[in-house]
Amino acid sequence: MLPRLDTDAEWDEASSDEAALRPGVKDLCARLGLADAELTRFPAGSLPVYAVGAEHVLKLFPGVYAQDGVREARVLSHLEGRLPVPAPQVRAAGPYENGWHYVLMSRIAGEDLAVAWPRVPAAARDRIATEAGATLAALHALDPAPLADVVGPPDWDTFLDKQRSGVAERQRELGLAQEWLEQIPEYLNSAPLLTSAERVLLHTEFMREHLITDPSDDWRLTGLIDFEPAMTGDRAYDFVAVGLFVTKGDPRLLTRFYEAYGRAPYPPHTLLAYTLLHVYSNLPRYLKAMPVPPEARLDVLADTWFGTETGR
After folding, report:
1. Which CDD domains does the annotation name (predicted)?
2. How far apart are alpha carbons 208 and 210 in whole angstroms?
């Protein structure tokens, strides 16, 4: 069986110990009628995820993250058949032993877009941006009310206030240089964050790593995965990951994404503010991976990462 892991520290210690996890995974597969299926753990991701034969994927959540498993199963069920780029279909979900939770889902054909991207032709990249924009728009158009008991936060403005209160210290702990840190308070105070009552279902990590593409079908997008961090909130929040991990500072691709989504671009200032307030924000990491701004100023950084083509 799988070991009991009820704290972050316990999970950090055991997460890569495949010898400790595999017997429980095999036992669970047997209970699900998949004893003879080949098990292959995917190398990426913060949680143990296994290909179970050619048709299934098994995602496991230790006790400390069990509620994330409940959330993912509910969100996937809510999405079934409702997005132009499909999410996995839930085959089974529930509690296992020692506090663990599992979601058995359909396996989507194709490969991780982040891995495939260097091989994707320019024309196909444009089409992918269009397909991705339409998919995010469809996600945001769904009514999140049926998920209110598992997807939060209960109050968006309270969530933002909490994120704002510790933002500089979090970035300092991640290694952000002082020249950036000292700009954060004033930058956030002037940020045009939206306070409308509208709240939509957010993926929160809409990125190449969570999009599946099929190279044998002209690089068509075939899937959108990983919904355990889903939230409800301002739709602009999802454009943080779009700019950082899908279009990656490419104004033309981001413009295409907005056109497919069906709205005018958000002010870059707004999106960089949400970048700083994001649950998974890591500005030092982004500074290493994204285009370098011509000046070490947050307003210039916002335009460099989240700017679009002018006149469109």
Report:
1. APH_ChoK_like
2. 5
| Pairwise CA distance, residues 298 & 304, whole Å | 10
Tokens of 83: 């997005």
pTM: 0.95
Please indicate, yes or no, whether residues 140 and 206 belong to a single structural domain of this protein. yes
| pLDDT of residue 82 exceeding 70 | yes
- Structure token pair of residue 72: 């993912």
> Which CATH number characterizes residue 46's domain?
3.30.200.20
**Through-space distance between the first and last CA atoms of the chain, rounded to whole angstroms:** 56
How high is the pLDDT of residue 311?
Answer: 41
Amino acid symbol at 9: A
Interval 114-127: pLDDT, tens: 999 999 999 999 99
Q: Which residue has the tokens 């996890």?
A: 21
Q: Please state the rounded mean pLDDT for residues 140-159.
A: 96
| Same domain assignment for residues 198 and 56 | no
Cα(114)–Cα(127) distance, integer angstroms: 15
Query: Cα 262–267–268 angle (5° rounding)?
Result: 115
Beta bridge mates, 202 = 231
